[in-house]
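Q: What would this chain look like folded?
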Amino acid sequence: MTIYRDLYLVTMKHRDEGGPRPDHEGHHGEHRRHGHHKDRHGGRLFDYGELRLLMLAMIAEQPRHGYELMRALEERTGGSYSPSPGVTYPTLSWLEDMGYATVEAEGGRKSYRITAEGEAFHAANRGAVDSLFARLGSAEGRGRHGEPAPLTRGMENLKLALRLRLRSGPIDQATAENIAAALDAAALAVERAW
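A: My prediction, written as structure tokens:
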């Protein structure tokens, strides 16, 4: 466990000094192993150490399941960032391995609760945590490019629905015309929403 702490402290030191981080590999500091730290628009919102602190702070607020953490982060950023399970669960495992969180089984799901050691680590990093929450607060209620979160959600839902429909198989002419009519109606409704 000491090795993990040492790696974490070195990682945070390099990050604070603006240098390359030992847990990141690739061209220009790209994070290859946990590449889902990017917001939906290509830029990385949090580095791995920041995400650890943020998740620890959120389970300090209340015990949570992994899925609840993902949704809470998405909500706090107005939908502009949602960590993937491939990022969330290894981070929670790291918090558990470090002794900062404990896992309790609740109806077949794992609930993560902060430990006394986690509380001490959280308190020692309060400034960084406050800064992260301030960054989240500036994004709250806003999506990409500053538009209101409901618009971002609606646009993302439309894109996903189209992608899923197009991948489900061939579209005949009548279906294509129905989809086009629905899109045209939506476009007209948006234009008239002034």
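The longest helix spans residues 149-167.
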